[in-house]
Amino acid sequence: MEYRPFWLRRLHSVTGLVPVGAFVLFHLFANARALQGQLRFEALVERLQSLPGLRALEIGLVFVPLAVHAALGVQIASRARPNLGVYPFPRNWSYVLQRVTGVVVLVFLLFHVGTMRFEVARGRMRPVDFFPVLCDTLSATGAFGIPMAAAAYLTGLAAVSYHLGNGIRGFCFTWGLTPSPKSRRVAGAVGTLIGLVAFFVGARTVVYYATGGAG
Amino acid sequence: MSARGREAGRLVVRVIRGGPGSLPRIEEHSAVATPGLTIGGLLDSLNETLAPLGPDGAIAWGPSCADGTCGRCTLLVNGVARAACLTPVDAISKKNRPITLAPLSKFPVVRDLVVDKGRLDDDLRRTHAALPSPPRSRTEPAPTLADALSRCTGCAACLEACPEYGPGSGFVGPAVLGQLARRVLEPDESPRKEGRLDAAQGRGVVSDCGKSENCVEVCPAGVPVVDGIETLARLLTARLFERRRAGAE
Hints:
The structure holds 2 protein chains of 2 kinds. By secondary structure, chain A is mainly alpha-helical.
């Protein structure tokens, strides 16, 4: 009997929640420290940078689980044959949006990590530069005065928030924690609440940077 | 034939007909809509006119028990999987839309609206599950989850609606998962429970459910398939921790 697909599906499920989902919430709340000003934000960055074994923690608790979750997620999404046009039910919408937002999150993270964390790894940026770089990047406007980078961040943030919130319900389903319609509704409500909180916290920070760190 | 779906109580009905080795063709017919007419009744009335035309005249679509218990009249009504004997024409033919009847798209066509659901039988056998015989009536109370799951008639509406199930997919589909859950839950099947849980953990079974929950939306018998799938997932989770605990001891 072939059990590998079962274990891979459970691995995909658990990596999405812990540690990736937990890191997302930590990351958003940590970055919200910027709202208290550049000095408070940089003090937090310095404290985090001085954590023993930070590189190992980043790789083991963030990068590897995220890569595993993304790779398995792309495989799951590639199998889907959406039929929203014929069956436009709410949960079918969630099914499609979970896969779409997963891809959007992947693209956004490649952009976000590539322009921030990898620049630090390459020695082209220091952690102390995060605040001014984000202020400059997110407040810059393009054609018609549209802050394109801020719009991209808000889009990515919306995708992350939806994917996390809906993913919490999906985690409960995968592990059989919600075997009744009522328990699935509760899980959905909890996931929605967490997703909304994540979006609200992250969006406030993006808007703060987009207004030059003065809003 | 008028482009309007309904004129003075008349319906335009388009039927996708054909069989293996032939290209499907669309036949357009006119029928009279009477109050309470079902899709099954509509097909019967069309066949009263078509049957005398020869052996290939009548539209193949059943046979049907006419009360939703045999599961053999499922077809696509304007693209949506429905039981012909339970679907009122009035619920479908709105705003002058013609009614289009087609065979289920995820199974090989035998003739006209009849498909070969052999894959469902194969997957039931592979997972040591089986359809209830006879299925519990939709109107009969179902005190337990196993009772509710025993309403399944094998109509395959859930398989048609499932975005993970199809000719290129190895997924057994919601109907099989529901019946596997029923067999696992039934007390007199407890000696075979471990073997069925092993099957549930295998390739193409529980792990392939995509959680669209279309199955419960389209099921004409009201089978709580999603409850059954999650129950299997819960039992597998419990077994995982039991085995870890046993291994640790």
